[in-house]
Structure prediction request, 1376 residues.
Amino acid sequence: MSGSVRICLIGAGRVAKVHANSLVKHVPQGELVAIVDTSPDVLQETAEMFSIDSQFTTFEMALESVQFDAVVITTPTFTHKDLAVQAANVRKHILLEKPMALNLEECDEIINAAIDKNVLLQLAFMRRFDPEFQAAAERIEAGEIGKPMMIKSLTHGPGLPPAWARDLKTSNGNLAEVNSHDWDCIRWLMFDNYKRVYVEVANFKGEARGVDTENFYDTALASVQFENGGLGTISSVCPCDYGYDARVEIIGEKGIMQIGQMGGQAVVVCTDQDQGLITPIFRTWPKRFEWAYIREMEHFVECIMRGKEPKVGGDDGRWAVAGVLAGTTSFLEERPILMREIMI
Amino acid sequence: MSGSVRICLIGAGRVAKVHANSLVKHVPQGELVAIVDTSPDVLQETAEMFSIDSQFTTFEMALESVQFDAVVITTPTFTHKDLAVQAANVRKHILLEKPMALNLEECDEIINAAIDKNVLLQLAFMRRFDPEFQAAAERIEAGEIGKPMMIKSLTHGPGLPPAWARDLKTSNGNLAEVNSHDWDCIRWLMFDNYKRVYVEVANFKGEARGVDTENFYDTALASVQFENGGLGTISSVCPCDYGYDARVEIIGEKGIMQIGQMGGQAVVVCTDQDQGLITPIFRTWPKRFEWAYIREMEHFVECIMRGKEPKVGGDDGRWAVAGVLAGTTSFLEERPILMREIMI
Amino acid sequence: MSGSVRICLIGAGRVAKVHANSLVKHVPQGELVAIVDTSPDVLQETAEMFSIDSQFTTFEMALESVQFDAVVITTPTFTHKDLAVQAANVRKHILLEKPMALNLEECDEIINAAIDKNVLLQLAFMRRFDPEFQAAAERIEAGEIGKPMMIKSLTHGPGLPPAWARDLKTSNGNLAEVNSHDWDCIRWLMFDNYKRVYVEVANFKGEARGVDTENFYDTALASVQFENGGLGTISSVCPCDYGYDARVEIIGEKGIMQIGQMGGQAVVVCTDQDQGLITPIFRTWPKRFEWAYIREMEHFVECIMRGKEPKVGGDDGRWAVAGVLAGTTSFLEERPILMREIMI
Amino acid sequence: MSGSVRICLIGAGRVAKVHANSLVKHVPQGELVAIVDTSPDVLQETAEMFSIDSQFTTFEMALESVQFDAVVITTPTFTHKDLAVQAANVRKHILLEKPMALNLEECDEIINAAIDKNVLLQLAFMRRFDPEFQAAAERIEAGEIGKPMMIKSLTHGPGLPPAWARDLKTSNGNLAEVNSHDWDCIRWLMFDNYKRVYVEVANFKGEARGVDTENFYDTALASVQFENGGLGTISSVCPCDYGYDARVEIIGEKGIMQIGQMGGQAVVVCTDQDQGLITPIFRTWPKRFEWAYIREMEHFVECIMRGKEPKVGGDDGRWAVAGVLAGTTSFLEERPILMREIMI
Prediction:
């Protein structure tokens, strides 16, 4: 393929702005040619921010009016399957936001559509492209800390999720919407699949914030056993009132590795001996994963240009969904769930 | 009580040396007057190290020959009940190493003996006296991070435990021998008791180190639900080949708190740009908890002198044992265990 | 001005590659249209790396063949004056690498040429565009640490400088080639000019590396008094064998602020309790100041497009040169030098 | 010598309490038998704090009434020479607080008296006994960072010094009262003596705090050249309003080493994403150097018991005084001072 890769952005919300920024500012071979959002206000705001004239309220309208090679799907989870399958059917390559879909059947439909139509399917697990996470993965693979025995991954994020994302009837809750990255990372960095999942959840803040959704939780702790016997844990807090926090700790047979830290910008101040040192933290995920989002988009564009397979694909998205489903079943049934109960 | 508190040390092994050092060097009002150990070699080595002439191979012999007010019991767990009850019966105050005992019946015998004979019973959870842990507890109690929602405690320690300590027939394994402190800390710092426990274990190093004990594990992950709905996790690695590691992270409704760090001495070196910065870690628990051991012994001596109740006692020891028993049952039966199944 | 800003890069060495990368990858409104270098090999390598066909061995040839709006001058210091004046004369905007020039007369020629020809002159003090340095400057200006009393800035860099850069006959040595950024930063962050400069130098590594240049030094320490009475120090080490290191510490009447740290990527590993924790450092200045270089180029392009004055200009470059000259005079004459002796 | 070492404490102020605490709580072989202070209130407060009945307002009275082997002199600098010579004359070993004395003549009188009377003279440079500083010194000596090229030492301390200590007529100001430790440390850790000293000073806070003493300064920066060509700097801030801060950075031919850090207790909290992480600092020197004071006193007592020479003695104290005198001369005369001008 020659020239630039023309891309249509479907969904114009928060993460869409991040992807648009990557395309417009930092990935010269990718060209953002159209934006789609069902909400005219959101659509206009994002499109104007990046000076994109081609604005549409449906994907169909974009298809009719503009030529493009690929889509970036950033809409709510429950829309993923239809949009992704539709995109595959018109032979557009797909960068699909997490979580991949609501259940394994939907995942399979997407995967099969991409295979059938021979389009690339990349899952937007941007941590796979973060310089720190990547360096860590390479160093683990090189054997620096020995065979991984235990992994602890956490994502704590500010802000109450939207109503659809905290209701188990329309989403898989925080385990999916907040912690998909953790489910992906623990598989990636343990170089192994989950075998058994146990989850405890808690609801500390729902009432005070007017959430009376059944089974709502704002705090969760997943305990995972891997196929090779390794152990893992995922910690989830959302809304998290101290900021955005994403860290991983891996204990191998020979050593320990920590990826990420709470501290952000290296500007340290002390003005009060009783209070002590103050260090900024990463307040938002776009800031924490600034390079990861750029590298992710570069990878997507490069895969399309060179016709090579993205290094994080449908199967990775499917495993993360399966982990979430096992976790949800676990806390609802108050028992550990074997993955083979889920991945029938 | 006037004058100094005379103390007999029962058990002369590693932690005994730490307590002896506190008494001889840093707690002037405590006097180490006798040491007991069934192994003449261990006995002599420790007694000489602290210039103690009164050396005995049985507690009875010490009782016959030397006057003292209190005992510090540092022998293997399976001896705790008999020695503690015996000490109580001759009206000696007791500083008892962790884990308290093998089961709840033994815990109750010790607690009741101490009550009946009106002697003080202090459990050697020295983290309760560590300046960092104490400051953290006070700050949590003062509401700095809001109501605690989740706590993560880890203890990873070097060195294969002795044979008795890794066999579930003679001990409760690493969950007890290594992680008693975590079981105590999570109750202390969550200001709540456990309600449900789930544990996964793994055995990565046993075979290579010639351990074929049934049910041996070197890696464990406990998932805890507290009575108030809070969540907790305990991470256990032993033998841990990267050093000694003890840290806690608490997430409250308003904020997060971290206690402890891997880095030890603040001497940072860089001599190789490819390797980067090197910071020493705490290699051993006596070094990490140097002040905690001194403060613990000060507290014990002060309680005896002033006739006041130690701030960590039999009930705290009993809860830690109950947590361990729930955990062991959980991984053996592969299901979450309610504390009410254990604490009948 | 509409459309993109067309830029000719003069000098194709290390820092030229950094600027080319910013232009080609991250500043869509800037277009790299030509590269000039007197060395055909260096020219070809850099031009190919960024797919630039217009390659020239002289600036004159570039002027004849290609249309452009601006130049980025990255050649050795002793060429700056002629090239910058020549560029101004043909009405090209100028982004000029540090140090600005060899002496104040040259600085003045450049400044006057830019004024006469009404072209923008931006000095490439990229730390002014680093997110951490910028945040720090804003926080100091907002009064967070009170009035600055003392500033300590260090730049230690790996690699023996080229022969011309370590000889006081053809350059101003490390104080200029390595520490121009420090001279700029201490003025910027103290919000004041130097009044007096005293410098000590040392030569520890020259002999072993075959350098017998007169007055060569690899280690230097400048002591600065500011006009308002504040104090400053600049530390210089080059070649520095542990990596690249750039940090600033500012003590104000109310507090202290640290900018930057030795640690780079937040991937921490421990595999040996005797060695301890290992944290990567920033090994190179392009990596440490990755965003600074991008933001610097964005600023240059934006200033040209909007016709606004760059926020770091000729006067800042001139002050840094003056500091260097005072410093060199100081260590040669072994006495403190008042700036008024230099800035006649 | 058998039994314990009996010690008389001369001066009962702040540092006297620290030494008394070491003796009473942590150095069992040292016995605090008498306290002397000219102020009855200070005397009584400190004596009661440590339950010492033998309280005297003059050293002569203590000598008449109590038997002891050694003195710890903590009185103001201008009294050191007379008290130390007097103590030597009655054959008492001497632990002498810093700065040693007001000038080199006084230093020599003390040194000669100790030699003549064959008593031990230890200077209270407690950083020499700090576990971190000691480990660093050993690692430098072992060659870990190569030959030291540059050292930066800072001591910033809270609180306006007493009137006598900020007046150059009765003391040598902050360079002596605050930074004696830095003068000692840079010699110790560079394994070399100073050759030339240049000092800049500033007075930012004097007026606001009602200090109109001539030549008063609250901020100082010393630039030092060592005999082997190495460079050093000492940074002084007092009163320092952000807390107590004592750190050293050493650059060797092979690497860099940092000793100490601003952060104190490892309890990190974040409750506000806009503010970020908060880490306690060391607020006071007794806390920062808690173990250093204990080890220093252990060393003094052990030297007396074993008749061995203390590892930091009169000559070290004399060099620190010489550095201070060179520094004061430098800022008064606004020129670098060669040590041979001072050490005639």
Q: What stands out?
A: Residues 314-333 of chain B form the longest helix (20 residues). The mean pLDDT of chain B is 97. The radius of gyration of chain B is 20 Å.
